[in-house]
Amino acid sequence: MATRVLIADDQTLVRTGFRLILDADPGIEVIAEAADGESAVRPARKLRPDVTLMDVRMPRLDGIRATGLLAGPRVDDPLRVVVVTTYDIDENVYAALLAGACGFLLKDAGPRLLVEAVHAATKGEAMVSPSVTVRLLAHFTGGARAGGRPRRDPGLPLTSRELDVVLAAARGRTNAEIATDLGVSLSTVKTHLASVQGKLGARNRTEIAVWAWERRLLG
């Protein structure tokens, strides 16, 4: 079954371009478009797309608040939202991650990454450029100013290997890349991530990354 996508962006050209790119993939179907956050929330709740691509700056209801309504911590059955932004350092994107977005993508990332972002979100992963992840999270959590080596607090509720997986995920590594880096199987990485989510109360790998950066675990 094709992955069903809703596109929310106030620019007609952006929505049209995204639709053309996504519809060219046989595994993706664009089921709706919206020109503002308010117009996105209603159909998203009704149609329940597998993934919603959400612009940050839109009229009537911005993408951050719309994301919170669809994927926020108080939503009983949250949807998967990928925030799309023009800016690689943007406090609105960070706020959107905290509001429940499972990832974010730059608008100029290119067709291939757009498609990969949708497929990744469907699998519960976040397609985020590693360089953008590090700069964005470090900028807003103070991690960039921490300096020195990663701080491994003995009071952390994670095992040493779980922490290795967390640090890799926080740097934007995919599950497959983490498995290769650590010399373990893909299923082992997924098991560790599931365990970490349970221990931290995180809903996805993006929240795990935010948790790691807020505690300055990365040097």
TrEMBL record:
Residue span(s) of domain Response regulatory: 4-122
Signal peptide residues on this chain, from the entry's feature table: none
InterPro entries, sorted: CheY-like_superfamily (IPR011006), NreC/VraR/RcsB-like_REC (IPR058245), Sig_transdc_resp-reg_C-effctor (IPR016032), Sig_transdc_resp-reg_receiver (IPR001789), Tscrpt_reg_LuxR_C (IPR000792), WalR-like (IPR039420)
Domain (HTH luxR-type): residue spans on this chain: 151-216
Keywords, comma-separated and alphabetical: DNA-binding, Phosphoprotein, Transcription, Transcription regulation
Matches recorded under SMART domains: HTH_LUXR (SM00421), REC (SM00448)
Pfam entry (one): Response_reg
Highest taxon listed in the record's lineage: Bacteria
Protein name, as recorded: Response regulator
Organism: Saccharothrix lopnurensis
